Description:
Blueprint: H1 2-11, E1 18-23, E2 26-31, E3 34-40, E4 49-51, E5 109-120, E6 123-133, E7 139-152, E8 155-159
Antiparallel strand pairs: 1-2, 2-3, 3-4, 5-6, 6-7, 7-8
Amino acid sequence: xxxxxxxxxxxxxxxxxxxxxxxxxxxxxxxxxxxxxxxxxxxxxxxxxxxxxxxxxxxxxxxxxxxxxxxxxxxxxxxxxxxxxxxxxxxxxxxxxxxxxxxxxxxxxxxxxxxxxxxxxxxxxxxxxxxxxxxxxxxxxxxxxxxxxxxxxxxxxxxx
Length: 160
């Protein structure tokens, strides 16, 4: 009996569940039935990003600007959205600073082509393909992103 209780005490926390819910323009990520983050799929031609990031206790550890205003936070660097990966220069086009209205010359944009896989259980994978476009909307690159979310008490791990 003691061994069974020890087994449950040690391994049940490792079997946390990762769940995805698809919505227009984004994929919600839950771990153990609680919100963890959202993968935004290049809304308005901006870059894809993951925001907010929460600890296992639910504490948000990423800043909220520019997605929302929060008392005491600065409003600098509006191109830095949660966790993202981007390119500063692809054939002369900027895919880093892609905020609408920023006036950046030769600003590229990202568009979702397709979400190839979304699935999870104890870990969850999102596999998506994006297209980088020049200011006229002409495709100049294709990018595939795979993001795996791992659950485990008390950790949260993302392989981006």
